[in-house]
């Protein structure tokens, strides 16, 4: 996986620094350059990487360290703290409560695996004792309701959608209201996939959000799109209040850093990688 490879590269850079006989500016720069190279190869945005490197150098001033200080540990801690701060927006993550209805709205790009991820997310919580339900508010993509219906049926999760109604806002509201009446405590609304150029679909997404008042909006991102993720995230941020990111397709691409950049620009709680967080055991050929 991309994140495992990136973590391995950073660990090796730190290990090489730790094995150095003398810790000086040259060793520090070599370590930072290796980490920078690993982040850029994973498609983390250049500005974010540059700022990280600058901040570490401001914190670690080897010339000012008194004799006896553990330079290796100070450098390692500074790098660790800076990497963590990149992904930590300082917000607590949303936590649904059993017995209390929570509405989760999924948004994302076309082809990101959003509809499949909705079912995996629902199944993940179903196994933990929640009563989830799925609402298909995607009236733009042909076959969207069929896909959600098939997935939900296999996972034995109640679902709502319509072949006749073309208004996604109406479908979303009706579905959410129905499942609240049925005492579902995790109502997941799937919306139409879109790109930043599609103004009408972004307006539709905003209307669905205003009508359903979701407790959490999750942005589903395909890790393979690289640094394009940054621009797409900016576009979504302007329309809805995204609170979390799920990264899909992490096992087949070396550009997961672009999706990490998206999480940063959205300033959301820790980026969730669907292959890590949602190991649901869903052997449903979704």
From TrEMBL:
<dbReference type="InterPro" id="IPR000897">
    <property type="entry name" value="SRP54_GTPase_dom"/>
</dbReference>
<dbReference type="GO" id="GO:0005525">
    <property type="term" value="F:GTP binding"/>
</dbReference>
<dbReference type="GO" id="GO:0030942">
    <property type="term" value="F:endoplasmic reticulum signal peptide binding"/>
</dbReference>
<feature type="domain" description="SRP54-type proteins GTP-binding">
    <location>
        <begin position="101"/>
        <end position="279"/>
    </location>
</feature>
<keyword id="KW-0342">GTP-binding</keyword>
<comment type="subunit">
    <text>Component of a signal recognition particle (SRP) complex that consists of a 7SL RNA molecule of 300 nucleotides and six protein subunits: SRP72, SRP68, SRP54, SRP19, SRP14 and SRP9.</text>
</comment>
<dbReference type="InterPro" id="IPR013822">
    <property type="entry name" value="Signal_recog_particl_SRP54_hlx"/>
</dbReference>
<comment type="function">
    <text>Component of the signal recognition particle (SRP) complex, a ribonucleoprotein complex that mediates the cotranslational targeting of secretory and membrane proteins to the endoplasmic reticulum (ER). As part of the SRP complex, associates with the SRP receptor (SR) component SRPRA to target secretory proteins to the endoplasmic reticulum membrane. Binds to the signal sequence of presecretory proteins when they emerge from the ribosomes. Displays basal GTPase activity, and stimulates reciprocal GTPase activation of the SR subunit SRPRA.</text>
</comment>
<keyword id="KW-0733">Signal recognition particle</keyword>
<keyword id="KW-0687">Ribonucleoprotein</keyword>
<dbReference type="InterPro" id="IPR022941">
    <property type="entry name" value="SRP54"/>
</dbReference>
<keyword id="KW-0694">RNA-binding</keyword>
<comment type="similarity">
    <text>Belongs to the GTP-binding SRP family. SRP54 subfamily.</text>
</comment>
<dbReference type="GO" id="GO:0006616">
    <property type="term" value="P:SRP-dependent cotranslational protein targeting to membrane, translocation"/>
</dbReference>
<protein>
    <recommendedName>
        <fullName>signal-recognition-particle GTPase</fullName>
        <ecNumber>3.6.5.4</ecNumber>
    </recommendedName>
</protein>
<dbReference type="Pfam" id="PF02881">
    <property type="entry name" value="SRP54_N"/>
</dbReference>
<dbReference type="GO" id="GO:0005829">
    <property type="term" value="C:cytosol"/>
</dbReference>
<keyword id="KW-0378">Hydrolase</keyword>
<dbReference type="GO" id="GO:0005786">
    <property type="term" value="C:signal recognition particle, endoplasmic reticulum targeting"/>
</dbReference>
<dbReference type="GO" id="GO:0003924">
    <property type="term" value="F:GTPase activity"/>
</dbReference>
<dbReference type="GO" id="GO:0008312">
    <property type="term" value="F:7S RNA binding"/>
</dbReference>
<dbReference type="InterPro" id="IPR042101">
    <property type="entry name" value="SRP54_N_sf"/>
</dbReference>
<keyword id="KW-0547">Nucleotide-binding</keyword>
<keyword id="KW-0963">Cytoplasm</keyword>
<dbReference type="InterPro" id="IPR003593">
    <property type="entry name" value="AAA+_ATPase"/>
</dbReference>
<feature type="domain" description="Signal recognition particle SRP54 helical bundle">
    <location>
        <begin position="2"/>
        <end position="87"/>
    </location>
</feature>
<dbReference type="InterPro" id="IPR036225">
    <property type="entry name" value="SRP/SRP_N"/>
</dbReference>
<dbReference type="InterPro" id="IPR027417">
    <property type="entry name" value="P-loop_NTPase"/>
</dbReference>
<feature type="domain" description="AAA+ ATPase">
    <location>
        <begin position="100"/>
        <end position="275"/>
    </location>
</feature>
<dbReference type="Pfam" id="PF00448">
    <property type="entry name" value="SRP54"/>
</dbReference>
């Amino acid at each position: 996986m991309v994140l495992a490879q990136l973590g391995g590269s950073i660990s090796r850079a730190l290990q090489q620094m730790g094995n150095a006989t003398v810790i000086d500016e040259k060793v520090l720069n070599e370590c930072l350059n290796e980490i920078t190279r690993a982040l850029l190869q994973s498609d983390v945005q250049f500005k974010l990487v540059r700022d990280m490197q600058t901040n570490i150098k401001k914190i670690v001033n080897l010339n000012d360290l008194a004799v006896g200080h553990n330079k290796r540990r100070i450098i390692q801690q500074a790098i660790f703290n800076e990497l963590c701060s990149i992904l930590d927006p300082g917000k607590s993550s949303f936590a649904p409560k059993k017995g209390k209805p929570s509405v989760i709205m999924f948004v994302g790009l076309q082809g990101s695996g959003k509809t499949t991820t909705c079912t995996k997310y629902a199944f993940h919580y179903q196994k933990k004792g929640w009563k989830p339900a799925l609402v298909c508010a995607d009236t733009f993509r042909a076959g969207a309701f069929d896909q959600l219906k098939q997935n939900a049926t296999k996972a034995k999760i109640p679902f709502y959608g319509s072949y006749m109604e073309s208004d996604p806002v109406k479908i979303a509201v009706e579905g959410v209201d129905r499942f609240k009446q049925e005492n579902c405590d995790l109502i997941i609304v799937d919306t139409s996939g879109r790109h930043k150029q599609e103004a009408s679909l972004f307006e539709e997404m905003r209307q669905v959000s205003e009508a359903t008042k979701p407790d959490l909006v999750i942005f589903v991102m395909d890790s393979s799109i690289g640094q394009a993720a940054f621009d797409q995230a900016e576009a979504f941020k302007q329309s809805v209040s995204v609170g979390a990111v799920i990264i899909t397709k992490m096992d087949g691409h070396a550009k997961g850093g672009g999706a990490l950049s998206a999480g940063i620009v959205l300033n959301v709680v820790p980026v969730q990688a669907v292959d890590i967080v949602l190991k649901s055991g869903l052997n449903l050929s979704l």
